[in-house]
Amino acid sequence: MSAAYDQILARDGAARARRGGVLAATIAVVIGSMWLTGLLDPKRFADAWPAVVQLSSEMFPPDFGRIDRWIWPIIDTVAMSIAGTAIAVVLSLPLALAAASNTTPNQVVYQFSRLLLNLLRSIPELIMGIILVAMVGFGALPGVLALGLHSVGMVGKFFAESIEHIDAKPVEAARAAGATSPQVVWHAVLTQAMPQLADITIYRWEYNFRASTVLGAVGAGGIGFELIAALRVLEYAQVSAILLCILVCVTVVDGLGATLRRALK
User: Fold this and answer.
1) Each residue of 74-84: pLDDT tens digit?
2) How many whole angstroms separate alpha carbon 210 and alpha carbon 243?
3) Which residue from 104, 155, 194, 203 has the fewest beta carbons nearer than 10 Å?
């Protein structure tokens, strides 16, 4: 009994030492990263303070004199986020079924689908926006395509993980009953995963609205284009007004998303 107890204590001690080592290494990496990026340099913050004060004084009070010209860009931004999310869902669902280990036809399809999702996820939507603006021109269309294609990488990954966590028993029962593969997917797989898929879709829509404001920087339209235009001419009072408009829109979109999630429970 004493030997077994000693072994347990030794294992617990080794586990604590291992966790302590991991924690110490993590802290060291975090502190090193903060130092390399200048976050721990008080002199730099002190030197920047006068510029912060001057810029803040130029941004307030906000100038809403051109708010009537921002209404349609805001509508464009909302439309871009909705259309981009719709593209992502349509493309992500078949890719997720191929990238989920319990629904993929074979390992070749599984690995290819995972690789494609990784590729789309690795290219930021801003870079996609620049490429697509060069391809299809300025306006909301390249923004929608950039949001949709980048979102496929994230949405497809989350969809696949949700599908992998479903209960296998209904799937086995449907196959034993002679259901075809599409019938198994529809009645046994998607039925179980649908609440999670809906949550992921709504969260992604909320993210896409925020991301669509940034795409205006590369000529993809929306309120982001107005924001960059104000920044270029140093109209900081208009910049703060646009930022407040974006804040209101983000709050409304987040509230709508929360309402939709409650309604779908």
Assistant:
1) 888 888 889 98
2) 11
3) 194
